[in-house]
């Protein structure tokens, strides 16, 4: 069957990736609310000042996060005359946290979410012009939350100097807008380890017939330990990075339910690269805080596949920890090995430099420029070198399921002092290689490596772009036992 992609599907796909699209805020035929706007500015100065009320709620429409008015118009153009007071009643339609700011007019609303209920922004417009309103939550403007305020007429004499009274409710806001400086906070003492235990691999499936499996995951935002003395607000699947490893066999039908914790501030979702259709699930799992959604898919292709959150700004959600893997075993299963491990690499972009003893915030500008401060295995510095070392005994065969969440950086995966006896490149069982030193793993890609360990010692897992080891990407495979004669010895023969 010929595959086609509609322009709207492309726009949606581009938008999911966080690329800024122009926002069609004003379709033809949208009526302006006052005579001055339609008859030019000459008469506007004579208009008595009025109060204009707009009701806006937020939502996700066609993959974009947007403001919607009570007529269903997406990112409507608001209109007023200079000197008018504008009242915007704001509500989070999908439950996530937002605000509305107009920096050109020094206007900002309070943050609002499902938890806060409605908030009212009330301000007087001092002058004519076209102004931009948007949500200042990081990433939200980039994926659609932006529109225009069109002000006609001439300012009344005092309009620019007398602010509208801020009297209508305690939630009304008339704040001077200052582009949020990121406050420096001490490391969060409640931060917990989010590092996934690499031994957390589901049992092998082997030779059974296809069946239906049910998985359930919860997206949770929580303060985690990024490094000694450094915390970060992680966004996770099941409170761990990477999220839990899922395991199925080819031909299985999988029902996956994704719940978003009640105290989340963000919408979350899941796109599994093992899924055919529905953007890998991302199209139908955009879950608001306190809600859940399910998808059902057939595991059509065997292999090791990455999954990740697919909610705008997607790289922001991935960099905050929202990735994991699903293994789809081929018919008959995989060869038996002594140990299996689950390891993923990701990079993190933080407001303060690597090593700062603070609570780190995500830095979207560094992310856009692909300049990470941290590279991590299993979510945090030391996850696999202190918290959860990989273990094996001489003579055992170790299989590592290795993936890259990214969002942006390729890994040159290598184990210092070992050779991969077998590599299933790109996580595919169709192209087995032997005797490999370093294997490339793309963002959103995976590999499976097998090593028969023959000498005791500490073997370091690294990305062989080795500057990254200094930024956190180091793991340890601790091998104990008696050396195999002739394999290695320190000193001369
Ligand atoms: Cu997410």
Give a brief outline of the structure.
The protein is mainly beta and 493 residues long. It has five helices and 29 strands.
List keywords for this structure.
mainly beta; Immunoglobulin-like
CATH topology heading of the largest domain: Immunoglobulin-like
Quote the distance from N terminus to C terminus.
65 Å
CATH architecture of the largest domain: Sandwich
Overall 3D shape = elongated
The residue fraction in helices comes out at: under 10%
Mean pLDDT: 87
CATH superfamily of the largest domain: Cupredoxins -  blue copper proteins
Radius of gyration: 27 Å
Total number of domains? 2
Count of discrete alpha- or pi-helical segments spanning 4 or more residues: 5
Low-confidence stretches: 1-16, 18-45, 158-176
Strand content: 35-45%
What are the bound molecules?
A: copper (II) ion
Structure report:
The chain is mostly beta strands and 493 residues long. The protein folds into two domains: 48-178, Cupredoxins -  blue copper proteins (Immunoglobulin-like, Sandwich), CATH 2.60.40; 212-480, Cupredoxins -  blue copper proteins (Immunoglobulin-like), CATH 2.60.40. Helix content is 6%, strand content 37%. It contains five helices and 29 strands. The protein has helices spanning 7-16, 35-39, 314-319, 364-368, 383-387, and strands spanning 51-61, 64-69, 78-81, 85-91, 101-102, 107-108, 119-124, 129-134, 146-152, 212-227, 230-237, 246-249, 253-260, 271-272, 292-298, 303-308, 323-329, 339-348, 359-360, 374-377, 390-393, 397-406, 411-416, 420-424, 432-436, 438-441, 445-452, 457-463, 474-480. It has a six-stranded mixed sheet with strand order 20-18-22-27-24-25. Strand 5 and strand 6 form a beta hairpin. The radius of gyration is 27 Å and the shape is elongated. The N and C termini lie far apart (65 Å). Bound molecules: copper (II) ion. Copper (II) ion binds next to loops.
């Amino acid at each position: 069957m010929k595959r086609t992609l509609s322009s709207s599907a492309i726009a949606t796909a581009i938008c999911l990736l966080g690329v800024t699209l122009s926002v069609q805020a004003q379709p033809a035929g949208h009526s302006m609310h006052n005579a001055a706007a339609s008859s030019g500015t000459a008469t506007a100065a004579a208009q008595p000042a009025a109060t204009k009320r707009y009701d806006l709620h937020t939502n996700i429409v066609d993959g974009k996060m947007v403001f919607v008015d009570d007529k269903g118009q997406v990112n409507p153009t608001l209109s007023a005359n200079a000197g008018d007071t504008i009242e915007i009643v704001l509500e989070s339609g999908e439950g996530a946290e937002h605000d509305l700011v107009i920096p050109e007019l020094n206007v900002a609303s309070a943050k609002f979410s499902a938890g806060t209920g409605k908030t009212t922004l009330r301000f007087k417009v001092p002058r004519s012009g076209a102004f931009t309103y948007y949500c200042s939550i990081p990433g939200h403007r980039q994926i659609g939350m932006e529109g225009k305020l069109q002000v006609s007429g001439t300012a009344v004499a005092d309009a620019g100097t007398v602010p509208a009274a801020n009297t209508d409710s305690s939630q009304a806001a008339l704040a001077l807008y200052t582009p949020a400086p990121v406050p420096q906070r001490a490391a969060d003492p409640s931060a917990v380890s989010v590092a996934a235990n690499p031994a957390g691999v589901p049992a092998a499936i082997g030779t059974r017939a296809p069946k239906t499996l049910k998985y359930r995951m919860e997206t949770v935002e929580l303060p985690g330990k990024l490094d000694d003395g450094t915390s970060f607000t992680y966004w996770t699947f099941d409170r761990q990075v990477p999220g839990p490893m899922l395991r199925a066999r080819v031909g299985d039908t999988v029902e996956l339910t994704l719940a978003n914790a009640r105290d989340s501030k963000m919408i979350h979702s899941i796109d599994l690269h093992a899924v055919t259709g529905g953007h890998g699930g991302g199209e139908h799992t955009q879950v608001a805080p306190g809600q859940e959604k399910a998808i059902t898919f057939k595991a059509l292709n065997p292999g090791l596949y990455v999954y990740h959150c697919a909610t705008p700004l997607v790289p922001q959600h991935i960099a905050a920890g929202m990735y994991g893997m699903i293994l789809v075993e081929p018919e008959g299963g995989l060869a038996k090995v002594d140990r299996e491990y689950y390891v993923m690499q990701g990079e993190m972009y933080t407001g303060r430099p690597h090593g700062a003893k603070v609570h780190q915030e995500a830095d979207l500008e560094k992310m856009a420029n692909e300049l990470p401060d941290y590279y991590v295995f299993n979510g945090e510095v030391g996850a696999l070198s202190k918290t959860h070392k990989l273990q094996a005994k001489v003579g055992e065969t170790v299989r590592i399921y290795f993936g890259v969440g990214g969002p942006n950086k390729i890994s040159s995966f290598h184990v210092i002092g070992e050779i991969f006896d077998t590599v299933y490149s790109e996580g595919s069982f169709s192209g087995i290689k032997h005797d490999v030193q370093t294997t490339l793993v793309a963002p959103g890609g995976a590999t499976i490596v097998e090593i028969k360990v023959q000498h005791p010692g500490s073997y370091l897992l690294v990305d062989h772009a080795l500057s990254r080891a200094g930024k956190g990407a180091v793991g340890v495979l601790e091998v104990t036992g008696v050396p195999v004669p002739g394999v290695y010895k320190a000193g001369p023969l």
